[in-house]
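Teaching assistant here, posting this on the class forum so everyone can see the example we discussed in section. The complex has two components, and the goal was to see what a joint structure prediction looks like when all of them are supplied at once.
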Amino acid sequence: MLSRTADHLYWMARYTERAENTARMLDVNYQMSLLPQSEKTIEGGWRALLEISELTQAYSSKHENAAPATVIAFMARDMDNASSIMRCLQAARENARAVRGSITTELWETINTTWLEAQRMVLNGRVEHAPAEFFEWVKFRSHLTRGVHAGTMMRGEVYDFIQLGSFLERADNTARLLDVKFLAAAESHDAASDPVDEFYYWAAILRSVSAFESYRKVYRDVITPERIAQLLILNLSMPRSLAACLQEVVKRLGRVRNAQSADTQMATLNLFTELRDTTIEEILEQGLHVFLTEFLSRINDIGAGISQDFLVPLEVAA
Amino acid sequence: MRSLASCYRLDEVSGGLMQQTMQNIAFDEMVDSSQSSLLNGQDPTVNPRAHYQGFAQWLAQQPEQTLKARREEAELIFRRVGITFAVYGDTDGTERTIPFDIVPRIFPAHEWEVLSRGLKQRVQALNMFLHDVYHDQHILKAGIVPREQVINNAQYRPQMQGVDVPLNIYAHIAGIDIVRANHGEDTGAFFVLEDNLRVPSGVSYMLENRKMMMRLFPELFANHRVEPVAHYPDLLLESLRHAAPAAAGQPNVVVLTPGMYNSAYFEHAFLAQQMGVELVEGKDLFVQDDVLFMRTTQGPRRIDVIYRRVDDDFLDPEVFRDDSTLGAKGLLRAYRAGNVAICNAIGTGVADDKSIYPYVPDMIRFYLSEEPLIANVPTYMCRKPDELDHVIQNMEKLVVKEVHGAGGYGMLVGPASTKAEVESFKVRVLANPSNYIAQPTLALSTCPTYVDAGIAPRHIDLRPFVLSGQHVRMVPGGLTRVALKEGSLVVNSSQGGGTKDTWILEN
């Protein structure tokens, strides 16, 4: 396959996944902001979301306060924000268009229709009037794209590079979500915390990664932050956990490997085996934030390695 | 439903621009005007030609709302499929669709039979001409085509002189523009308006229009035996494989596109996908030791045949425009060494230039010893003194074209111009006569077309695609383009043109 084609496929997948995860993250924040709590806590939640998306500066240059509606508009439909859902959907579509000959007609039409309909929804004010509905829609379009991909694409290099992009992006996004929520919980934690509030807080996080029911099945017990971390970092059966994502990246890299990809493969395999062999206690002892920060940095290096080895190298593409 | 069709008047085309000049009413593809009064409003479903009878019957039964809904559905589907073209200079990423008309253009089998033979004959002669020009130049020596017309032509590529290409084929893909008009004694005669031998486009619309028509109106295909066109990509791939250098076992064929912001990008991607070959851009390519490679995830891979949708000028910065990034440096070296085939060959423009066009009938006689089956539009060459005289004296009735002009530039439409414009154009022609040709203003045939006011006649042309490999072949059909503006003869999509499905009915 052409390196340029692989590059477009990989980024098409990353942007599709990123749009979904941004919608998930916004949705959980939005749901939480509906719970009874202080204005300050609510604003803190939105600021943390911007922080973890590395968008604080871009946001501050346009807006002063972090009111929910303002942050949602910025993250969902602001075309000046390269990480907004709309920009991700557009980028996914542009990348798909560049390789529309390499993907099935159904996959292309699904991605193209998502972009066309998203524009219509934004024009009709759906983001303002029914944000939860909009986020749900983005998630479902992503499900649909994934289903069409799984149901129509030949299992081969094209498929592998799309999977590679999806899972690397998902690992990154799940790590960010965990980081922001655990940091926020640590900051607002005091002796007077209401256990009922706590329950809603953590349940919302689980729901944001479609893991609430799975948690119940796995633990059959009350929700605790430690177990959530365990489930979303280490459980190989959880499709959005860090370990599961890394396992998939290792597998796909093994399939597409070439003469120069040995280092990237090794880095990925190391990260995966560490996740497989560690326990949640060890991670918490080290500090979750420290662990996740290092994880994100290693994911970033793997991404750069993939670009270097197979795709259009990042510095050339920029 | 009558009201829908009531605005179909065959005399419409005699209004406006055409009024002063047209002795003949335009030939209508669907309605037999000899059967009815021309001056009154007329329903196109009355007095249809024999091959339109089934369609007319069906059309008469369609409620207006159904047709309107189908039309809107077509627009939606084209957007979803992304059959769009980017508008140059438009930064907000607007993409347009080319309007699709739901009334098909229908040919009976016997008409197509003559057309297809004529097209194959013409393309065969054009390929022989190209081989001759770049080798022994018999036709120039025989004085049939003036040497200076060829050698001084901007499209002549001296780099191609003496280069052998597989099967001696230069134009593997030719798009020949055909019009139909009443001319002199002839009713509805076919003429070749123009040959396109460089990078003719539009074939994807031919294929997508058929898919759309079958999707919108499946019942029509149950009642008509319409020749299929969907195998075009197979024929194309076969022709491209035939062009491969002899040494290539399983030739690696690619489509070269200028990129996704090119207005024909949809077609490039579509053809690559349909043929199952890579769609490459200049940045994917490099030449090493006179061999062309593409960069893949598994290292360099050799290319044997390149179906390029990039103009000659941009193919190789070493030889042509040195600022081009759309081709590959050293491509011409690889080509001349016989290590890669380029389709269409470099330098085919010398055969489709307007200054060469008048000689095509003579080429057919010279190379094939046959009479041309499809005529040229009568053309006056201003380089010949007696023809120049005629052009100067009758310019207000003629269309005068610059020989290297394209897209309607450097052109005068006499009947649509003021006296002052005609006079000033005469000065230009007299200053450099050999730079101009002139043709009578033809009333292109019309076909019923769904416009805002209902169904009305609009002028059309036809671009069939002729493929040359070991055989000269074509799929039964082509792209019918329609000028959607009333009375307009301009079918270009950039100027309000649309397209129609084209049917060849089986006997």
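For the discussion questions: Residues 20 and 139 of chain A are 5 Å apart (CA to CA). The interface with chain B takes residues 1-6, 94, 97-102, 105, 108-109, 112-113, 116, 157, 161, 256, 258-259, 310-311 of chain A (CB under 8 Å). Think about how each of these relates to the inputs above.
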